[in-house]
Specification:
6-stranded mixed beta barrel, 18% helix, 30% strand, lyase, RlpA-like_sf, cell membrane, lipoprotein
Amino acid sequence: MKYVWLGMVSLLMSACSSIPKHSPAHLVGQVETGKASYYAMKYQFRTTASGERYSHFDDTAAHKTLPFGTLVRVTNLANGESVVVKINDRGPFIKGRIIDLSRSAFSEIADLDVGIIDVKMQVITD
């Protein structure tokens, strides 16, 4: 009986924590333009809305509506540099911003000192 219970708990936990490995097909190609910012240092290791721990070193991001696990290419409109990030959190919650990037992802396309940049965000496949 003990092993049956443990098996059920394990199955339930794995089902709850799974994040799709591919972007939903109907969203692929969707484009959005607006402002991007990055997470403050105080969020390091906090739990994101998807249940993952936030890390400044992972190429992840927050978006208000895209499903968790969706991959998006974010392009800095000022210099053409781009980065691919995985959506694993909700936000940003500041008017005019469309995406919050991890510090690592932001630093790949802009200087952290800039803080906020104009971007084009496109849903892609991996």
